[in-house]
Amino acid sequence: MANKEKKGFNASIYAVSTSIILAVVLIILTIFSVATKYTAFSPEKIAQSYVDGIVQTGDGYNAYKTTLVSKNQKYGNFIIDAYMRPYVNDGEDVKQADFVGTGSKAEQKAIDDVYNTMYSYYVSLLKTETYDNYDAFFSKYFERLVEVRKAVYGDDYMSTDFMFGAFEANVQTYADSLTGTKRTFSPDNKKVLSEETIGAYQVIFGDMQKVETENIVDGKKQTVTEEQPVYKLTTEVKECKELSAEETKAYVEEYSKRIKPIAESGGAKADKFGLKDDEKESMVNAFKKLDCSEDISSVAKAKVEVKNQRNELVATQELYVVKIGRSWYVDNTNINTSALYISQEG
């Protein structure tokens, strides 16, 4: 993972440095934009990006940003309109628990209780529904979150910020459980606030090695050498072949059969929650936009291998990527990613 360094500047040369900083920022943004677009322009790279995003941290959530789910709408908006909207009431003057916004121990405990309770449920959904069945995954998660909030806070309040906060905290906690975490230090670097943790990947794949790390020595943070389990997972596209025109036509027809029931489910879902007018329209459109069958011009089948630092094969993923315009997207309607959740095997 690349490390980003934030640099300051001398106020006495503000006029000169400002133009330099702006130029650097523009260059960085341009490079990032080009790199992102280049990935989307390549079926091999989009396939690898999708698999790598899941296998490194178990993050099937953000992997969906490279799939057809995000083709016609922003991913965050889709989550809001399709799954959060029935529960959101932060604009309706709903009273919250008295401790909300106080920064008190009671508030922190409530947040921790919600996040911890939902984390257990999140892990269970990874094993039962999986992100491949995202509709059931998100539906069940947010339904349970509303129940847990009510039980812990004693109120009926719900906002998109609270919902995203809980969900994304669970996503990060799961990632940490795989990769492990580093020590954290007090602002004055004189005290260890939390020790490092050993992740599941370190246990499964790790080789004991001497590595440089940070610790407190004689009351000061210093670089020390310690023995730790070290692992490395790499992804490589072994095959990626575009289908023939006839095969592509047949594939799109099958894709259409898979996606249409989901794309047409928004109305029934909205009626189930009693949504009306704009709220119903937003949910209906969120699901309707999932259907990309009219826009697919090409399809490629890819095979991605995952290996550890000893070059041992630990997982293989087959998937289909489809081309719309100049960009490629993973077809999330025709995939089983269970092999990428390596820590759950056995």
Walk me through this protein's architecture:
Strands 5-6-7-8 form a 4-stranded antiparallel sheet. The two termini are 29 Å apart. Helix 1 (14-41) crosses helix 2, helix 4 (75-84) packs across helix 11 and helix 5 (105-128) packs across helix 7. The chain is 48% helix and 18% strand. It has 346 residues and is an alpha+beta fold. The longest helix has 28 residues, at 14-41. Residues 1-19 and 32-36 have low confidence and may be disordered. The chain is flat. The chain has 11 helices and 8 strands.
What does this entry show, briefly?
This protein has 346 residues and is α+β, with helices and mostly antiparallel strands.
Instruction: Report the structural category.
Output: alpha+beta
Number of helices: 11
| Rg, alpha carbons | 23 Å
Oligomer kind: single chain
Quickly list its features.
alpha+beta, 48% helix, 346 residues, two-stranded antiparallel ribbon, disordered N terminus
List the helices and strands and how they pair.
Blueprint: H1 14-41, H2 43-57, H3 60-63, H4 75-84, H5 105-128, H6 134-153, H7 160-179, E1 184-185, E2 192-194, H8 200-205, E3 207-217, E4 220-230, E5 234-242, H9 245-263, H10 266-273, H11 277-288, E6 298-307, E7 313-324, E8 327-330
Antiparallel strand pairs: 1-2, 3-4, 5-6, 6-7, 7-8
Helix pairs in contact: 1-2, 4-11, 5-6, 5-7, 10-11
